[in-house]
């Protein structure tokens, strides 16, 4: 079987990382090529990768399956659909709640217009994969839709971190419980909620890995609340999971998620997780596996953090077991391969 993946770039971003893990899991059984638009090459793929422009049509006759990830690749396949022969099937994986992500990134009007347009495009696909049943229910007007959970491979949890970061974290660890975040710092991640409760958690410090549009606002918030001495922004780090062994609790405070990779990384390392109580995350995790809190409810977040601290051993054991049973990359890749074969 010959499969082409269409990606926005080769950036170290969630949807692209998942595509990489799928490819790594099927590469011994299929011939795979990757096509991408933007000149960003942060990830290495085990196959041929070729940069294309939006108006350049690939040779669809070479492939049995063409699999796109994210809105531009989806539009690309829709735009070139007349050149796709009947024997070539097109698949899209939708990695997020379309309307919520567009709303948080732009505004309600753009979310409504762009979201409806995106769904119209997806209706032309032979199959649409979503990450949870919650997402599938939201896209109930797409007939050919199926659910495949994300998964990640086993990671090396003994990788070293930068010396100055190690010294900082060790000093903090001697005095505080370390709350950790690794994310693209946008509004949708809700990280301000953690900073807002730090004044009421004298025993905790926050480490944030990542860059993004909200970084300066978050730093200012920490300064204004007088917790800058317990709130550190270390910037983008390649293989951010290297820091997870130094976190006592992983903080997942998002307003919307597709299927958060960083939480799976934390699960693999047995790091207790405090998790926003949204439908997608309630489907993936149970109250025995993570400590949930109500969004924009400081009291609820404080209680969730305290629960994760007091029951850390139980949460660590349960979340690690969750990874072993259902969140491994090969489990995900096998399900995609089975889908391709059925198509």
Describe the model.
The protein has helices at residues 14-26, 71-79, 98-105, 108-122, 133-138, 163-173, 192-197, 215-224, 261-268, 279-284, 298-310, 312-326, 329-342; strands spanning 2-7, 31-36, 48-51, 65-69, 89-94, 127-130, 145-147, 177-182, 204-209, 231-235, 249-252, 273-276, 291-293. The chain is an alpha/beta fold. The strands form two sheets. The chain has a seven-stranded parallel β-sheet with strand order 3-2-1-4-5-6-7, sandwiched between helices. α7 (192-197) links the parallel β8 (177-182) and β9.
Radius of gyration (CA) equals: 21 Å
- Low-pLDDT stretches are none
Question: How much of the sequence is in beta strands?
Answer: 15-25%
Helix-strand string: EHEEEHEHHEHEHEHEHEEHEHEHHH
Average pLDDT, rounded to a whole number, is 93
Count of helical regions: 13
SS-derived structural category = alpha/beta
Shape verdict = globular
The major β-sheet equals: 7 strands, parallel
Strand count: 13
Widest sheet: strand order? 3-2-1-4-5-6-7
Q: Assembly type of the shown chains?
A: single chain
Distance between the termini: 11 Å
Helix content bin: 25-40%
């Amino acid at each position: 079987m010959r499969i082409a993946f269409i990606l926005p770039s080769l950036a170290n971003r969630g949807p692209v990382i998942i595509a990489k893990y799928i490819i790594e899991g099927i590469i011994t059984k299929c011939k795979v090529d990757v096509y991408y638009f933007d000149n960003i090459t942060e990830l290495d793929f085990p196959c041929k990768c070729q940069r294309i422009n939006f108006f350049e049509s690939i040779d669809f006759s070479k492939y049995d399956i063409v699999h796109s990830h994210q809105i531009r690749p989806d539009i690309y396949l829709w735009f070139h659909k007349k050149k796709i022969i009947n024997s070539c099937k097109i698949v899209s994986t939708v990695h997020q709640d379309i309307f919520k992500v567009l709303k948080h990134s732009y505004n309600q009007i753009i979310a409504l217009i762009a979201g409806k347009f995106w769904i119209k495009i997806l209706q032309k696909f032979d199959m649409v994969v979503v990450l949870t049943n919650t997402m599938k229910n939201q896209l109930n007007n797409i007939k050919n839709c199926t659910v495949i959970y994300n998964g990640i491979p086993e990671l090396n949890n003994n990788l070293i971190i930068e010396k100055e970061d190690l010294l900082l974290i060790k000093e903090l660890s001697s005095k505080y419980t370390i709350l950790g975040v690794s994310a693209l710092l946008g509004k949708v991640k809700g990280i301000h909620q953690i900073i807002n409760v730090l004044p009421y958690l004298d025993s905790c410090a926050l480490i944030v890995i990542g860059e993004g549009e909200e970084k300066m606002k978050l730093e200012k918030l920490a300064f204004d609340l007088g917790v800058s001495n317990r709130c550190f922004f270390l910037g983008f780090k390649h293989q951010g999971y290297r820091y997870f062994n130094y976190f006592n609790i992983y903080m997942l405070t998002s307003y919307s998620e597709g299927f958060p990779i960083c939480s799976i990384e934390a699960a693999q390392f047995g790091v207790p997780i405090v998790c926003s109580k949204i439908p997608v995350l309630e489907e993936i995790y149970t109250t025995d596996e993570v400590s949930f809190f109500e969004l924009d409810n400081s009291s609820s977040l404080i209680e969730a953090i305290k629960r994760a601290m007091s029951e850390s051993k139980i949460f660590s054991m349960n979340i690690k077991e969750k990874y072993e049973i259902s969140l491994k990359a090969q489990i995900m890749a096998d399900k995609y391969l089975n889908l391709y074969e059925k198509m």
